Amino acid sequence: MNKRGFTLIELLSVVIIIGLIAVIVATTVNNAGANAKYKILESKIKNLEKSAVVYGQDNRSALASETLYVSVNTLIQNKYISPDKDDKKNPNSIKNPVTGGVLDNCSLKVYLKYNRIYAEWQNTDEGDCHVE
Predict the structure, then answer these.
(1) Per-residue pLDDT at 114
(2) Domain spans of the chain?
(3) 132 burial class (0-12, 13-18, 19+ CB within 10 angstroms)?
(4) CA distance linking residue 86 with residue 19, whole number of Å
(5) pLDDT of 48-87, one tens digit each?
(6) What's the per-residue H, E or C state across the chain?
(7) Contact (CB, 8 A) for 82 and 48
(8) Where does residue 26 rank: exposed (0-12), middle (13-18), buried (19+ CB within 10 A)?
(9) Residues near 127 by Cβ (< 8 Å), separated by ≥ 6?
């Protein structure tokens, strides 16, 4: 009589291989989500820097003698940038997708160099303004 079927060792090895594949896929998907949040944050910061340059152009007389520090909240209030519309908790804010907080109290440095206006994100040590 010829027996057909799998041995316990064969079944266990298949289950272990499937488990390893599942762990690898789950880790990859999780990392992709975190990377996407950082890319969204980078994009928001670039847009804020561009808005700060426009703010600097409108306030060029103040830039001639000093460096300006402008908050994100000032850019929103003066309509240089629009707040996030999908944030129901903070409708007049820009959300930090990495921390879940808001970027409103963060600041940008606006300065004049070689007759051209530049803006830089001011990185802080901690909180929602900290970007790695």
Answers:
(1) 82
(2) 9-121
(3) exposed
(4) 37
(5) 999 999 998 888 877 777 788 888 888 999 999 888 887 7
(6) CCCCCCCHHHHHHHHHHHHHHHHHHHHHHHHHHHHHHHHHHHHHHHHHHHHHHHHHHHCHHHHCCCCEEEEHHHHHHCCCCCCCCCCCCCCCCCECCCCCCECCCCEEEEEEECCEEEEEECCCCCCCCCCC
(7) no
(8) exposed
(9) 99, 101
- Side-by-side strand order, sheet with 107-113: 68-71, 107-113, 116-121
Token output for 24:
């690898």
| Structure-block tokens of residue 54 | 């426009």
Distance of CA 60 to the CA centre of its chain: 29
Residue 13 pLDDT level (bands cut at 50, 70, 90): very high
* Intra-chain end-to-end CA distance of the chain, in Å: 67
User: Hey, what amino acid is at 6?
Assistant: F
Sign of CA dihedral 66, 69, 74, 79: positive
